[in-house]
Design a protein that fits this description.
Structural class: mainly alpha
Number of strands: 0
Order of helices and strands: HHHHHHHHH
Shape: elongated
Helix content: over 70%
CATH class of the largest domain: Mainly Alpha
Number of domains: 2
CATH architecture of the largest domain: Orthogonal Bundle
């Protein structure tokens, strides 16, 4: 069952979403993820199970929605003075957060309950927004950065592949190496 788009932004719809998301997070912390059920979440959130089924379809889609919200970055990328430093700091933080046990669980949840790919697209948009901030900042300093899609292809995609399929040995040196290869290949900095 595909998740339905809500007609009303804000108001009751937003309050219901917040209550349900909070209930999921609280119950996960108290009882563990494996004990979650739609009726249990509904009871904690103060809504009926049918409200959850109508809005999210099933538990996997609800967990996916919660995961996407949790994967939203809290802050904008730091300004470290140049493109290389900005991208390296961002990539190290991205790898650290996504490769953590919590990050991996959120990635799995985001993908598991995502029948139409919209949640994966939203997660990709979060990364693209941050990369765009870094690139815009670099252009403002007179640097010649690669475009957002190139950074997604050469940094984010391999990081996500490794997190999902080859998680051993993922350290900040991997992120630094990817950034070095990206910038060396584009001729925007010396390695």
């Amino acid at each position: 069952m595909a998740r339905r788009q809500m007609v009303r932004p804000g108001g009751r719809s937003t309050r219901v979403q917040q209550a349900v998301h909070n209930a999921v997070r609280e119950l996960e912390a108290e009882k563990g993820r494996d004990t979650l059920t739609v009726p249990l979440v509904a009871q904690r959130a103060g809504v009926t199970p049918s409200t959850i089924y109508r809005r999210w379809g099933d538990l996997n889609e609800l967990l996916s929605d919660v995961a996407v919200e949790r994967l939203r970055p809290d802050t904008t990328p730091g300004d470290h003075g140049d493109l290389s430093a900005d991208l390296t700091a961002w990539a190290e933080q991205f790898l650290d957060e996504m490769a953590s046990p919590t990050g991996r669980a959120y990635i799995r949840d985001a993908l598991l309950g995502d029948p139409d790919g919209s949640n994966a697209g939203q997660c990709s948009a979060y990364a693209a927004e941050h990369i765009d901030i870094i690139i815009t900042r670099a252009v403002g300093r007179g640097e010649d950065p690669p475009d957002v899609e190139t950074v997604l292809d050469r940094v984010v995609a391999p990081v996500m592949y490794r997190i999902l399929f080859r998680p051993d040995g993922l350290e900040s040196t991997y992120a630094r190496r990817l950034i070095g290869q990206l910038l060396d290949a584009d001729g925007t900095c010396d390695p």
